[in-house]
Design a protein that fits this description.
Number of strands: 5
Shape: elongated
Helix content: 55-70%
Mean pLDDT: 85
Number of helices: 11
Largest sheet: 5 strands, antiparallel
Radius of gyration: 39 Å
Structural class: alpha+beta
Amino acid sequence: MRRIAMLALLMTGACSMNPRLDIPKPPVAASYPDAAAAEPASAATIDWRTMFGDPRLQALIDLALANNRDLRVSTLNVEAARAQFRVARGAMLPQVDANGSYTRQRIPTSTAAAGIGGATGGGTGTAMPSGFEFGQYSANAALTSFEIDLFGRLRSQSQAAFERYLASDEGRRAARIALIGSVVDAYLAERLAAEQLALTERTMADWNMSLDITRRQHEAKQVSGLELAQAEGQVQQAAADLAAGQRALAQAGNALQLLVGAPIPADLPAPIPLADQPIMTQLPAGLPSDLIANRPDIRQAERELVAANADVGAARAAFFPRLSLTGLFGFTSLAFDNLFKGDNRTWSFTPQISQPIFRGGSLRGELRLAKVQKSIAIANYEKAIQTGFREVADGLAGRATYKRQLDAQRKAVDAAERRTRLSDMRYRVGFDSRLELLDAQRSQYAAQQAMLELRRQELSSATGLYRALGGGDEGRAPSK
């Protein structure tokens, strides 16, 4: 009992060689540029279904979360890190093996005559003219090289493995948020390509009708060849835009299907036009401290920093002695039916202590490497915060300017449409040439295309801000 109590005391009295870890202060300003004076909430608290109200888009996100291969790999990486943590934690516990064996051996006559084989009397041995043969049974439980973690080396390794497990889970969350944002961007790109293609088709149909009129007028000597050439060039440019739009729509659909990870079902809800997309564009940003708490990639970098600090502790503990225990308790007998009788009991107890003396500088190299890795982890942590701050600042700049730009672009589209109507009226009464009408039509077409692109940019900017603030993360960190 005294030995057991002493062993427990040694195990519980293990110290830690981990250096003190002071998490660096965020290397960013205390507030975001272009942020409102008081934004107590953050978009990270908004569920992605609330953020993206299009039922078709929600169905696509659900499919992607279930089928995307990159997210599946991230989830498997979490399981791998968890298994590695279990391996590291298992090294802190005794490893006991149960063994059973049977040995048959022969002792020469000369050895038996010297008395070495005399102990076998009464067993299952068989005397022969040339020697003595006997069998031996054994059963035991063995404790093999159990290290008593006096200086916390194994504890530091286990902590590092656990922190990397948590970091991998944060990486999975970051991949999940990135996937949601990517699906939204791909969906918006597909909607843009589809609506621009539809606009091109309508415009090309109108321009073909106008070209037919121009050809008849040219045949009647009412318009010049220059005007006819201008009308034909306009139609051909629309045809080129039509081919480009068809390609863009096909490629956008392929990109969306890759993100979804499965064929897109045909029974999804009908898409909502870009102009009416129910995506929230005025999102609260909160404070940079909220960013550090909500963004999984920043939490992942912090976990990696804690793990690197534990690696330093393990490397420092490697300089100190290691105490290990090897023990065995079992039974040995020449007859199987007598194996577990008290007289056949056998045991051994072997404590061992080892102190590194010369390792060719490898221990110092490992310690130096661990310290450098910790410095790298600090830099990565600070960079993750700076990157997140910049992404939020970019999103806030979009939030502050896209609405004004869209209002101005809508007025430009209205003006272009009004100019086209007036030019058509003036052309019909002979006040303007055909060239003026063609130029007005091209300006209207370009303004409408730009309006669609600008609306997509506004929605993508809002999605980027939502992602930058850590939105869409519905999980919690795992427990040890």
